[in-house]
Amino acid sequence: MSSSLVFQTSFLGDAVLTTALIRHLARTGAVDVVTTLAGAALLENNPAVQRVVIYDKRGADRGMAGLWRTVSAVRAANRDAVAYCAQGSMRTALLARLAGYRHRVGFDTSAGRWLYTRRVTHRAAQHHAERLLRLAVGDETVVAADALTPSLYPSLADRDAVESLLTARGAIGESLIALAPGSIWATKRWPQFPALARSLSSHGRVVIIGGPADRELATSITSTTPNAIDATGQLSLLASAELIGRAALLVTNDSLPQHLASAMGTPTLTIFGPTVPGFGFGPLAPGSSAIGHESLACRPCHPHGPAVCPLGHHQCMKDLAEATVLARALNLLAA
Predict the structure, then answer these.
(1) 106, 127, 148: which is the final residue of a domain?
(2) Is the peptide bond between 194 and the residue preceding it cis, with omega within 30 degrees of 0?
(3) Beta strand 176-180 with 249-253: parallel, antiparallel or unpaired?
(4) Residue 201 belongs to a domain with what CATH number?
(5) What do you get for the CA distance between the two ends of the chain, in Å?
(6) Do residues 228 and 198 lie in contact, with contact meaning Cβ atoms separated by under 8 Å?
(7) What is the C-alpha to C-alpha distance for residues 250 and 308, in angstroms, rounded to an integer?
(8) Nearest CA-CA partner of 254 in 181, 200, 318, 307
(9) Could you report the per-residue pLDDT of 242-296, keeping only the tens digit for each?
(10) Which residues make Cβ contacts (< 8 Å) with residue 49, sequence separation at least 6?
(11) Among the three residues 125, 148, 171, which one is the final residue of a domain in this structure?
(12) Which of 96, 135, 170, 262 has the least C-beta neighbours within 10 A?
């Protein structure tokens, strides 16, 4: 049996998409994962993960002292152990090298590629879940679509939290439509979620997904759609996934909730502004779709979404009509 160590200390969406790689590796041996504190929360209860090591690279583990603490925690168990650098920084590659992993795998475009013993081609046209899986299976292996599906495992406590929330709002048994209006990238926030919520409220109970930072956005929706449920800041990440899993549809910006929906199998309509699905981060759940201002010549303008529109107009989001998004959402609900 082989043993593997996976490094994923990037964004939370990346952590979700890495679960397909982890699941594949667990078929042949134990898998440990180095991730952030928030990333660790997404991996709770995952049967494919033997151990999670938290690397708080911007906090308690900042600097060389924290790096050495992490090196001590993840030293290679044997000479055949393999480190997979799903997060491609030089720091991650150095950590794997110092921890004694003779086999270190990563992308040929990564900053740490000079320390890898095997480099896998980073193909921009592939979904990122496939790119990550190919760290293990290589460039040429045929990959089935279902092999890319992420895996999340909400606990009984997460399910109970969702039950309590829905019970308190009298929504048990109702058809739910989840909206996720937030994003850490300001330019990726579509501004017409309140109008969309009003239009969709006659087709199901609207529930708003997000963290504490999204409460103002949620208020802009609940103030005009009184029956909408504000779940922002009230649930753990896995409980949010559980709630999304109960919805008939999720409408979201290009942000974490679409990846939670991919894991939970919820049809998703993702609104893309400065980014595009071609970057490899579109929804994966069956019956999902992506929408954006296709005729705008300045798209895409940034791999993640800039803090402000480089041209000052933000037309990619402002000019995407509510009626256009509504029509696509209703088509998905009717499918």
Answers:
(1) 148
(2) no
(3) parallel
(4) 3.40.50.2000
(5) 44
(6) no
(7) 26
(8) 181
(9) 999 999 999 999 999 999 999 999 999 999 999 999 999 999 999 999 999 999 9
(10) 22, 26, 31, 32, 33, 43
(11) 148
(12) 170
Helix ranges (DSSP H) in the chain: 12-17, 19-25, 37-42, 63-73, 90-98, 128-137, 156-168, 193-200, 215-222, 237-245, 256-264, 315-318, 322-334
What global pTM score does this model have? 0.96
3-class secondary-structure state, position 178: strand
pLDDT in tens, 293-315: 999 999 999 988 899 999 999 99
pLDDT (tens digit, 9 = 90+) per residue, 196-243?
999 999 999 999 999 999 999 999 999 999 899 999 999 999 999 999
The domain in which residue 275 lies consists of 156-334
The Cα diameter of the chain in Å comes to: 61
Domains of the chain: total: 2
Region of 272 please: left (phi>0), alpha (psi -120 to 50) or beta.
beta
